[in-house]
Amino acid sequence: MNKINRKKRRYFRAILLLFMCSIVLYTLFSNISKDKYVVSEGDYAPNFSLETLQGERVELKDYRGEGVFLNFWGTWCKPCEREMPYMEEEYKNFKDQGVEILAVNIEESDLIVQNFVDRFNLSFPILMDRDGEVTGKYKIGPIPTTFLIDKNGKVVKIITGSMTQQDVKKYMNLIKP
Amino acid sequence: MNKIKCECGHVNHEGTVLCEACGKPIEGNQHIDGNDKTRLLNMRYDGSARRSQTYKKSIIDKIWNFFSSVKVGVWLIVLTLVASAMGTIFPQEQWIPANAVSRDPAIYYESTYGIFGQIYYQLGFYDLYSSWWYLLLVALIGISLVICSIDRFVPLYKALKNQKAKRHETFLSRQRLYSESDNVSKEEKQQIIKSLKKQRYSVRDENGHILAEKGRFSRWGPYVNHIGLIIVLIAAVLRMTTPMYIDEYMWIREGERTVIPGTNGEYYAKNKDFILETYDKDNQRFEEAIKKEGVVAKNFETELVIYKDQTSATGAEPKLEKLKEGSTRLNHPMKFDGYALYQAGYQSNEFSSMSFKVHETDDPNETAIGSITIDLTSPKSEYKLDNGLRVVIDQYFPDYYLDNGEPRSKSKYPKNPAFVFFIYPPNSDDPEVSFVGIRKNIDATGENEYKLGLQDFEMRDVSGIMVIRDYTLPLFFLGGVIFMIGVIQGMYWHHRRIWINPKNGKLLLAAHTNKNWHGVKTDIEKAIANTNVNMVKDQQELPG
Amino acid sequence: MDTLLNISSTMLLVAFILYLLATFFFGATIRDKRNKSKESKAGTIGITITIIGFLAQTVYFITRWIASGHVPVSNMFEFVTFFGMSIVLGFIILYFIYKMSVLGVFALPIALIVIAYASMFPTEVSPLVPSLQSYWLYIHVTTVSIGEAILSISFVVGLIYLVRTIDQTKSSKRTTWLEIVLFSLLIFIGFSLISVIFNVTGYSAQFEYTANNVTMTTEYQLPAIVSPYEGVLITDGVMQPWFDAPSWMHGADAGRKFNTLIWSVFVGLALYGLLRLVLRKRIGAAIQPKLMKTKPDLLDEISYRAIAIGFPVFTLGGIIFASIWAQEAWGRFWGWDPKEVWALVTFFFYAAFLHLRLSRGWHGEKSAWLAVGGFAIIMFNLIAVNLVLAGLHSYA
């Protein structure tokens, strides 16, 4: 009888200790590795719908089957400006291979964006996030930030910071259907 | 398991210090509570066996016993105390003042506090309260709370439940309050019982052995408050690890509508107006203080309209519906659907619109030919005047600066707007170029016929709003309430016990309480008034 | 409006004088050669005067409330004054439980020191800034103050215990520490004394210094021993500073505060030296004989009881109400602001005290030393955190 009791007690203690330790470890771990993005690599990219600079409405899910190079940018941001010509160059090569660029401008006026587009001769669609809705949904911090989305609508990679032309090429190859 | 049989016939568990039935000290176990060194008995848990101190077998038991020790608990408290205090030597990262040399901790601490600041930074003390080791300390306190409570609850419960009125002579005489009396009549004894009952003691009479007890529930206070603390810690874990807690910040401009961060695009807010009020300088009440301190703010408030997007789940084009209109100000957050918006900051250095007049360059009176007003959030590209003159915005820099001679914008916010204007005179396709900004008006060729002059501008405020949704609050609150109930229960009530046992014609009177001995003495004095019973003697051994 | 404020400050002065008077009556109760009835008579007069003083201070409080439109606990002067008032309240409560006159001899002077210290801060009625415009200001600050005051009574009794029981026949570590505690109290008296003296003479010296790239001037009301870091004296005909404050001292007006501290310590030392010269023994040793009538057991219990009563009040006000207010005002109930941290340190300290006492049997002298330590933490939170470690609570 006593032996059984003692055994029971030991199990109880072991389980309780294990339980508490795992909570502690889990808390510590999740505190250290706090997720920066709400959308992380491997997730499905949340759908959204925005107007382009020309006033057409575009929805992300319409691009299922294609790779989407989703770039968040601003005209005032130097690194964004630097990578724009590379994106334009590679866009010409990859457009026919099923890669689309969606460049989301964050809360700027049409005039400024139009000037910028004219200056760099950009041919890919510029989406105007006028209320910051999509920027908020994707929790964008510093720009430029680029989400690489494959043909199934899954986020393959998230890149923060400026890209070289080689980078752009490499990434477009990555999401080519 | 070794059972120990007491001379009264009761069989005690191993590790028992005082017999559970009669209270006689059990030989060989007195060192556990330190009774061997003193005359008075240690009444902790009434001398019953605490399991943790009896089995020392496996590693699990050893860990368990470690956390079960109050000594360890106190050490953990002291370590946490010292660590907490160290975090206040220099400001924590989030409290680095906005006007500091640099808000980068790597620079701030060294440049402001020298070598000590550098050490402070390198030890990671600038973010001490979310460091892994600080969290670990708090977590260890939590584990200690759970185990201590489990370990002590059962023995105390048993000890208090199984109490017998008849106690061993040694048990009584080694209580702090004790007296022996001769020649006590039955009537006197009844009188004492009556008096004790009147003082709200519950009195038990077992064959002439009397136990009067009051305020036993105060003994559960510590367990109750520890449960409260455990709930608080559970709430903290949930807050740190689950999305039950959302904490976001947004800047929102007057007149602007924007999505509320952290709401997954479901809610939008529009800033109708930001209000900043200061105390009137001529306010009689505060005249003197205002003279001394300068302008004193009276109110920060943002009038907001909240919209809800009916389609946000699908990601299609938002359809906004007005949900609520109201305002948020310091100390009075605006709440909706579980979210709370806090007035947290403001900026008043942005322009919202600028008006220019066009006049002939060589007109000494600068008579306006016409004027244009530019909405800086959505400027048009072309403005036509009545006389056929056209003003075209070629370039617009909301936050103008010169970058190696090249004009650029520092941000998207109109803090320092500047324009490159093309002015087309009536019936002409040949533009004149001029550059106009705040206190800047440059004629590129020097031959311009027309000039733009800044006539007027409007500024707009930007409100800093904190967005909080915290579903863990009720749990924290519950924990706090339970903690307070437990503390008050344990601290403001007292467990008092008085034993009156006959022995060899004498009447032995002894009393014990967990605190407020003064109170129990007064109770006894009242009870034995006008009887032959001797007042108890305080046998406490305090030097001096 | 002005008449109300005049009444208010007069009543504070009246209260101050009455507390002083009551101290002497309580003092009479511990003189050795008195008989019992005279002793209790002096005690009764003492407590009566104390209560009248308390009522006078209540009038101060209410009139100031009416005059300013908000409860007068919104700046250093008001808060510290209220803290002094709370100490008197705590003393009155414990006096009626235990009827111990010697308590008054120590508790009232502490309250006096606190009130005197308060009056050295700017006393004008100041408007409430938005962050303080909440009824939680009333609830939180008053509860904390009362809680801390009751805990301070535990220090007072602990101190009596130590003076009463520590062996003064030979010099030891314990006698030295006791003298340090008593000397610290003299520093406060020194601060009040020196401030009053130079206030009356109207001393002023101005310095110009640069902090965070902003040039500021500061006015010293005491002769400058230490100037602000790289500060320049711009008043003529006053004492030249001896040295500069170190560069890391650059809170608001750090140089002036440091100078005041040095002066307070100097005057405290002078007072201490004077007392030692007059008494020709340790101060503790000089007071001890007067306390021989008190029972250490009872002192020990009162000290513990004060903590038992004060701890829940403090926790309620300093942790729970504070969190609720912080949640309403800043959207986070806990922000690791220095004042919050030190409230937590206080909480931990007394929690450790209770565990040591209940489970590890720390009674008597150990317990008394802990009560002294607790008071040191409370004072640190009251003074140093507000004046040295800047934060949300630096309203002074």
TrEMBL record, chain B:
GO CC, alphabetical: membrane
InterPro entries linked: Cyt_c_bgen_Ccs1/CcsB/ResB, ResB-like_domain
Coiled-coil segments on the chain, per record: none
Domain (ResB-like): residue spans on this chain: 70-524
Membrane association type: Multi-pass membrane protein
Subcellular location: Membrane
Pfam family name, one: ResB
Alphabetically ordered keywords of this record: Cytochrome c-type biogenesis, Membrane, Transmembrane, Transmembrane helix
GO biological process: cytochrome complex assembly
Main location: membrane
Domain of life: Bacteria
Transmembrane segments: 72-90, 132-154, 223-240, 471-493
PANTHER family associated with the record: CYTOCHROME C BIOGENESIS PROTEIN CCS1, CHLOROPLASTIC (PTHR31566)
Stated name of the protein: Cytochrome C biogenesis protein
Organism: Gracilibacillus oryzae
UniProtKB/TrEMBL annotation, chain C:
One of the GO BP terms on file: cytochrome complex assembly
Record membrane topology: Multi-pass membrane protein
Phylogenetic lineage: Bacteria, Bacillati, Bacillota, Bacilli, Bacillales
One GO cellular component term noted in the UniProt record for this chain: plasma membrane
Protein name: C-type cytochrome biogenesis protein CcsB
The keyword Transmembrane helix is annotated on this UniProt entry: yes
Annotated localization: Membrane
InterPro entries the record matches: Cyt_c_assembly, Cyt_c_biogenesis_CcsA, Cyt_c_biogenesis_CcsA/CcmC
Keywords, alphabetical: Cytochrome c-type biogenesis, Membrane, Transmembrane, Transmembrane helix
Entry GO MF terms: heme binding
Claim: Transmembrane helix is one of the keywords in the record: yes
Transmembrane domains' residue ranges: 12-30, 42-67, 79-98, 105-123, 135-163, 175-198, 261-279, 302-326, 341-358, 370-392
Domain Cytochrome c assembly protein as annotated: residue spans: 74-180, 265-393
